[in-house]
Specification:
The complex is a heterodimer of chains A (680) and B (161). Chain A is built from 16 helices and 21 strands. Chain A has 680 residues and is α+β, with helices and mostly antiparallel strands. Chain B starts with 25 loop residues before the first helix and ends in a 5-residue tail after the last helix. The chains are: A alpha+beta (680), B mainly alpha (161). Chains A and B meet through helix 9, helix 10 and helix 11 of A and helix 1, helix 4 and helix 5 of B.
Chain lengths: 680, 161
């Protein structure tokens, strides 16, 4: 909530200090003065001092007249004096009773981009009137987002959390304050031309009317949409995390181990029960790690239980072991060779598939480009993608191919054909990828076995040439080797367990977000509260229209569009023989356009008293009667405005209506009349 | 094994259409040629230049290669000039559809966009969703692919110009 408590304009020349001081109360304030006396200047000064001039136009020219910028004179015929310094100062209050004095220079030493503030924080309890002074900047990048930006500060002061909205270039930006204020502040020159705003388009925000109204009305719809975008972002981040972890599990993370039971993408099932298993390649087959570990442990125990014998005694058995070892060594060598050949074949296949898919992608792109052209209209497609010869009109069945016996596929059919091929090749590719992974593990484990067999062979050979009485070391060496392998497996299990835990965590988070997303997808974005708000706003608008004597259409036929909340009217359409919704903009008379604007803005304000909205609680009308073609009844506007809740809301109206007429029209209704003479 | 066929049955064979590579579609190649001409000086180009562009635009690799040659990072001799029969048919169709016409100036023949061709080229140029890679290449390099450059490439290949 924002209320303007006081406004001060100063224009200082070498001889004189010109200026005006206005005090406003809550509720209805009418600023009354003759034309060209400076009413509009005062209201424009509010926009200026708040750094909101870009809500009027893209450039940064000061929206204030000469008198504040260059030269000024006391009376019409007096000579002009040069302005040496000028500034605007405003005092505003918020819903918590906090007060803020804001000053911005126009001419003078200080940079006009600098805004000085003095805040009186009454929440500190001490009641000390020590004002805290802070300086801010406006119109520099980050003014709305950074701590030191004035609009960031102002939004905080007003209790607003500005949402981020998508722009046409795909980037996001905050819903700038400049885009919101035209919904509270009707400026004299362009303000009366449309029902909403006009909202500045130069920020290039998509669907700006909808976004602004969603924020002002504090609808859940906008939040739902933002939450959905956020969810999608986080889900895709989780999915890429998953892929990465999974790859770590398959490749570099854990050697010599095959992993089963981890799906390609996170699933809800996995988050509940991670049914994974580790397998190792041992003795020519895949065994689960636990079984393999057990087997190996038993063998080690068996080895350890063998009594150590001397070389001489062991000669016969060593000789036999040597033969066996030699055999195994040869066999492993052959197996390794086989695995290597197979790996090479699959790799070759994998590469060919990848290449083929690449070609298919390009081909599909080309077909889609052609198809896109068809959507540009028949004129274009007939001209550049014809099917019969432009000269002899024979059907061009071959496209650009050399003549052959069969005709060419139609475009759509061809696209489907390419897509089906892609599908096939992709699944083939995935199969080879999997096979490659497996072969890689198998190859590595065979290689390890091979190396072990090699060292076993060596140790056996050495054992045979050792002195006859020394203890045979073959058994000990083998035991040591196997234990090392066991240790390695344990490490792997541990690492894999860690990775699986992480995967489960990812899957849990993923399942949670996905279910939330699914919840959001069902139904439209409007919550029940949203719908109530909109229908209440609609009935408020209708009621005001009736009071203001709107007569282009029966007020009861005016509804609000669901996409941008603009008033529309149901009219009978001859073509479709039914009622269609039409924007009121061009249909109503000029004065009815003004009445509609009054109704809309007052209704938005009034809605704030009933529901929780983000309305500033302030409405400013600059010359609400001036733009009408036929005289509109300002008295009814004043009367309606006087009904505003003074505890929450404030309305400022600048008018050149005669003071007497205002007094007579309002009678004893509460209002604050501000008459002034600008040059004092 | 015996194969029994009922005599009361009639067989009919239907020719299935065969898939066409996307770059052999009229609807792809012709618009692309319009774009080539549209990005050329005076909306006209020699057949040699069109062939060169046609060749270059067909894949990312060839686009990069020509880009390198234009930037002087690769020797001109590296470029293999090819003439594609389908492209000839495409040019015939384009002139037949009166999107472009042959012109002779200074004893040299060139293909020039007609007003109709220019109109459609403009529509294609303004459509942001199609021919993205191709348009990007043309935008970057078309200014540098002059007729003189084409002649140099041809000479480097020792082809008669």
């Amino acid at each position: 909530m924002m209320q303007v408590c006081a406004l001060k304009l100063r224009s200082i020349t070498a001889d004189t200090v010109y200026g005006v001081d206005l005090n406003f109360s809550s509720g209805l304030n009418i600023v009354q003065a003759d034309n060209t006396s400076g009413k509009s200047t005062c209201l424009q000064a509010i926009i200026y001092v708040l750094g909101l001039e870009r809500s009027l136009s893209a450039n940064l020219s000061v929206p204030l007249p000469f008198a504040m910028r260059e030269r000024i004179h006391a009376a019409k015929d007096d000579p002009y004096e040069e302005v040496l310094q000028s500034y605007v100062e405003i005092e505003i209050s918020n819903h918590e009773g906090g007060r803020l004095r804001i000053r911005r220079n126009i001419v003078g030493d200080a940079d006009p981009k600098l805004i000085s503030t003095w805040s009186k924080d009454e929440a500190d309890g001490k009641g000390s009137a020590r004002a805290k002074q802070r300086d801010f900047f406006v119109h520099d990048p980050g003014s709305a987002t950074r701590e030191s930006g004035f609009h960031h500060y102002l939004a905080n002061f007003l209790g607003w959390e500005l949402p981020h909205v998508p722009r046409f270039d795909g980037a996001e930006c905050p819903l700038y304050l400049e885009t919101l204020f035209p919904m509270f502040f009707v400026e004299q020159k362009r303000g009366w031309s449309t029902v909403q705003g006009p909202l500045p388009t130069h920020f290039r925000i998509q669907d700006i009317n909808r976004r602004v109204l969603e924020f002002v009305l504090n609808l859940d719809a906008g939040k739902v949409r933002r939450e959905r975008a956020e969810l999608n972002k986080r889900i895709s981040a989780l999915e890429s995390d998953w892929t990465e972890q999974r790859r770590a599990l398959e490749r570099g993370g854990v050697d010599l181990i095959r992993f089963t039971g981890v799906p390609k993408t996170p699933t809800a099932e996995f988050s509940h029960q991670a049914d994974t298993s580790l397998e190792v390649f041992m003795d020519g087959e895949w065994l689960s790690l636990s079984a393999a570990t057990k087997e190996l442990q038993e063998e080690i125990e068996e080895l350890n239980s063998i009594e150590l014998v001397s070389t001489e005694e062991a000669e016969a058995s060593t000789q036999k072991a040597l033969e066996e070892a030699q055999l195994q060594y040869d066999e492993l060598g052959a197996m390794f060779e086989v695995a290597r050949t197979e790996f090479r074949t699959v790799l070759e296949e994998n590469r060919a598939l990848k290449k083929r898919l690449e070609v298919l992608d390009i081909d599909l792109k080309r077909h889609q480009d052609t198809k896109k052209l068809m959507s540009l209209g028949s004129e274009v497609s007939d001209a550049v993608a014809f099917e019969s010869c432009p000269t002899c009109h024979q059907h061009l069945t071959q496209e650009l191919l050399p003549p052959s016996s069969s005709g060419a596929m139609a475009l759509d059919e061809n696209i489907a054909f390419i897509k089906s091929q892609q599908l096939m090749y992709k699944s083939a590719l995935a199969a080879t990828e999997e096979r490659l992974g497996e072969l890689r593990v198998r190859g590595r484990s065979i290689e390890q076995d091979y190396k072990e067999a090699q060292s076993e062979l060596r140790s056996l050979k050495r054992a045979l040439v050792r002195p006859a009485s020394s203890v045979s070391r073959t058994t000990i060496e083998r035991s040591v080797r196997w234990q090392a392998r066991l240790g390695q497996w344990e490490d792997m299990q541990e690492r894999a367990d860690g990775l699986v835990d992480e995967l489960v965590a990812i899957a849990k988070e993923w399942a949670k977000l996905s279910s939330r997303l699914k919840e959001l997808r069902s139904g439209d974005d409007f919550s029940l509260e949203d719908k109530n708000k909109i229908s209440r706003l609609q009935s408020l608008v209708q009621r005001h229209l009736k009071t203001f004597d709107f007569h282009s259409f029966p007020p009861s036929e005016i509804t609000l569009a669901r996409d941008n909340f603009r008033p529309q009217v149901l009219v009978f359409d001859k073509d479709s023989d039914g009622e269609i919704e039409k924007d009121i903009g061009f249909e109503a008379s000029a004065s009815d356009g003004i009445r509609l604007k009054w109704s809309y803005y007052l209704s938005l304000l009034e809605l704030d008293g009933v529901y929780d909205t983000n309305h500033a609680g302030l409405v400013v009308f600059d010359e609400p009667g001036q733009q009408a073609a036929d005289p509109v009844n300002l008295t009814s506007l004043f009367q309606e405005s006087a009904k505003v809740r003074p505890d929450q809301h404030q309305i400022l109206i600048a008018t050149s209506e005669k003071e007497r007429a205002i007094r007579d029209g309002l009678g004893d209704r509460p209002y604050n009349l501000v008459s002034f003479n600008a040059t004092s | 094994m015996s194969l029994e066929l009922g005599t009361d049955r009639n067989f009919s064979f239907e020719r299935k259409p065969s898939p066409v590579p996307g770059d052999l579609r009229i609807g792809w190649r012709l618009p692309l040629t319009l774009l080539m001409l549209n990005s050329s000086h005076g909306k006209k180009a020699s057949l040699a230049k069109l062939n060169l562009l046609n060749d270059a635009l067909r894949s990312e690799k060839s686009r990069q290669k020509l880009g390198k040659i234009i930037n002087g990072d690769t020797a001109m001799i590296e470029w293999r000039m090819r003439v594609e029969p389908a492209f000839g048919r495409n040019v015939d169709l384009m002139t037949g559809a009166q999107l472009a016409e042959w012109r002779v100036a200074n004893g040299k023949a060139s293909i020039c966009l007609t007003d109709r061709g220019k109109e459609f080229a403009k529509i294609l140029e303004n459509d942001v969703d199609s021919f993205i890679a191709e348009k990007t290449f043309l935008k970057e390099f078309s200014k540098k692919i002059t007729e003189g450059f084409v002649t140099q490439i041809l000479l480097a290949n020792k082809a008669p110009s």
